[in-house]
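Usage

Read records sequentially. Each one opens with the input sequence:
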Amino acid sequence: MKRKVLAIIVPALLIAGAANAAEIYNKDGNKVDLYGKIDARHTFSDHPGDDGDETYVQIGFKGETQITSDLTGYGQWEYKTYANDTEGAGDKSFNRLAFAGLKYANYGSFDYGRNYGTVYDIEGWTDMLPVFGGDSYTWTDNFMVGRTNGVATYRNSDFFGLVDGWNFALQYQGANESGSNNQEGTKNGHDSVRFQNGDGFSMSTTFDFSSAVPAMQGFSVGAAYASSDRTNDQVLTRGVINTYGNGKNGTVRAGGDKADVWTLGAKYDANNVYLAMMYAETRNMTPFGDGGIANKTQNFEAVAQYQFDFGLRPSLAWVYSKGVDVGVHYNSKGSYLTDQDLVNYIDVGAYYYFNKNFSTYVDYKINLLDNDANFYEANGISTDDVVGIGMVYQF
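and closes with the structure output:
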């Protein structure tokens, strides 16, 4: 019986991102849950940037207060700090999430702060690997594809209580432009074009067939779209950079006025089986290497996992991203733009759950990028394999 209970609990923990939160206060309609984890991790690779200690601590809380019978206030904060350097090495801590909002009956919820972009509603289905994954086009603080600043989010579950399983979300993000040029959003602006964004919006919708079609128990589909203005600095970076090979090759940065992404996804989560896949395209949005911004990317991710009753959860995945017209090549007839694979790897891993609070894992990233291509060397893109192992205590 204990093993069967574990097989039910573990998938829920993977999706939630935290194990049983500890309820530290619950009185008069006010509730606060505390959660956290210590991930003792080490990665091994021939690439120096991927080799070494990656231990970190993560902690957060979720709170809510019942204002009226229909109106609820809520908030969430999540913080992460690395423990893989000397005590005098400087700050390696940051806020992952920090937002507050209101929920009114079946009319939905509205919150503002640092939160996940709604595009991640679909990407999160394949971002389930022990160490790697979810990185074909998803970068933190890159418009609304992952965690990001200054987003106002409206969410509605079961379509106003009328259609079980149909959820949707709408989101707006304010500008985070360069702090040195007196542009909009300079309170949280960043001089690096990598972390800037103009005003933008996103939306997502998902449908879980479990209630509507019992024969399709555990099957869901979803889609998301986002579009943002690019900042002046981002638009002006267009040009050839990272010239290499005696001036014969280089990289092109995107220079369009808009950054866009759309994605489609599907997942199956039932009977101890987890299967998910997604396809996405981005334009003038996705960073790569040391400083490139791709004109266009085509991205695919797929993952398969199985939860054994005794705690083992093997995982197999493929993560792929192709950049379209991101390279420039010269021959006797002149120059032309070329496509390049930006991310391409097979991932083989496994979790082992001793109980709901303690687990261990191993993850092997088999890099399929061509290690002979000087495009990757010039742009600082690793073509080496990486292995990650670790132990996790979580509550």
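Summary fields computed downstream for this record:
- Residues 2-16 form the longest helix (15 residues).
- The longest strand covers residues 312-331.
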